[in-house]
Amino acid sequence: MLLGSGSKPYTAAAVLRLADAGKLSLDDLASAHIDQPLARLTGQSFVEMFGPLAREVTVGHLLGMRSGVGDFDVPGFDHQVLIEGGRVHSPAEQLRLVAGWEAPMGCETFNCTFVCRPGNCTSYSSTNYILAGLVLLAHSDADTWDQMDEAQLLGMTPSNLYPNTHFLNTGRMNQTGLTVAGSSLQYGETTLFSQDGSILGWTCGNVAAPAVDVAKFFYELLGPRPSVLSAASVQLMQEWHTLDVGWARGYIQYGHGLMVQNVSPSISSKLPPVDHIASYIGHGGDTYAFLSDNGWFPQLNASISVIVNQDSDFDYPSYVVTCQVVEIVARYVRQLDVDLKCHQPNPHPLFQCVHAYGQPTCYPTHNTTAGMNHTPVSYTHL
C-alpha cells in the first residue's frame, strides 16, 4: 500500500536523526547541504535555480513547511506524470517546474516560486520534502537520488519491526514493494500497480508498506518509549504552526513532518484539538490510487494506520474506516463508550477488480467519481 504524504514523517525523522548525531542543525542554511547533490542533479546550485530568496531557506524551514517555496503538486502536473508512468521521473522535474514559475512572490495562483519570504508563512508544499531529500542525499553513501537508501538513514535496516517497508525510488512498483493494486480517479482513471516508483515524488511520497509496519513506525516514533529520535527531536516535531497560506489555510497545524488530524465527522476539521479521542498526531496521505490516515492517537495510547486503495472518496478512510477503528479501540481496549458519528460505507460496489494478463485491473461498474467500496487495510499498535 502507498502512503503518499504519509511518507513525510519518515523523511523528517531521517533528517532529525542527522541532527541528533550532530551532523547538521535545523538552523543551517539548506544550501549548505543541498548545493552539491543539486548540482549533480541539475547543474545548478539552490540559489542559481530558485533565485536569491533561496539564500534564506534553512533545513528547519523545509521540514516545517515554512520555506515559502511553491508546491509542484498541482493537478495538471500530477496528471501528466501519471500518463507517463512507465518512465523514470527525476526529482529535477518537480524542482524545475517550481523554479521556472514567473508569478511574483506571494501570488495566490499556485504558480510562483515563493509564496512568501522564507520563515514568514506556513504553506503546505511537497517541494520542501524533495529538497529535504537532497539534504539526506548529501549525508548518504549514495551519489545519485535513485541510489539513496532512506531505510538505512532511518536505522531501519536490518529490521524485524518493519520487514515490508520500502522506499520506492525507481523501478516497477509491483517489483519493488507494492503488493496491492489501487484505482485512481482523482488524477486520471487508471489502475496503479506496475508504474515506475519515481512518479511518487521521491522523499515527499514514496513509502510503500503494510499498515502494520506503518503503525509500528509511529508507535516507535511517538509512543510511550520513542526509539527513532531523541526526546528533544520528538518534541520539535510537535512544535505547531497553523497553515496560513495556500492549501488548508487556517485548518491544519503543522510541525516538522507531522500534522494534527481528527477522524470524527462530529468534530470540525478546522484546527482539531489534540486532546480529542479521535485526534491523531501523524500525517494523512493522498496519492495516486491510495488514501491513508497514519499516526499516534494520544488519548488512546495507540498508533493506527488505515490505508485504502482508491483516491476519490475522501470520506472513506477517515470518517468511515479509521473512525470506526477508533471506536473499537476505545470501547474494547480503553473501556470508553464513545459515539464518533462515523459514516457508513457505500453499500454498492463502484468497481469490479479482476486479474487480466497477469495483473489486477479494476473497472468502474457505472459512471461515477464518488468512490469505491474496496476493503481497507488497517492496523492498531497498542
Q: What do you see in this structure?
A:
The protein is of the alpha+beta class and 382 residues long. 29% of the residues lie in helices and 15% in strands. The chain is built from twelve helices and 14 strands. A hairpin with a 2-residue loop joins strand 12 and strand 13.
- With helices defined by DSSP (H or I, 4 residues minimum), what is the helix count? 12
Principal-axes geometry comes out as globular
Question: Share of helix among residues?
Answer: 25-40%
Biggest sheet: strands, sense, closure?
A: 6 strands, antiparallel
Mean pLDDT rating: 92
Q: Which assembly state applies to the chains in this document?
A: single chain
In short:
The protein is α+β, with helices and mostly antiparallel strands and 382 residues long. It contains 12 helices and 14 strands. The strands form 5 sheets. Strands 7, 8, 9, 10, 11 and 14 form a 6-stranded antiparallel beta sheet that branches.
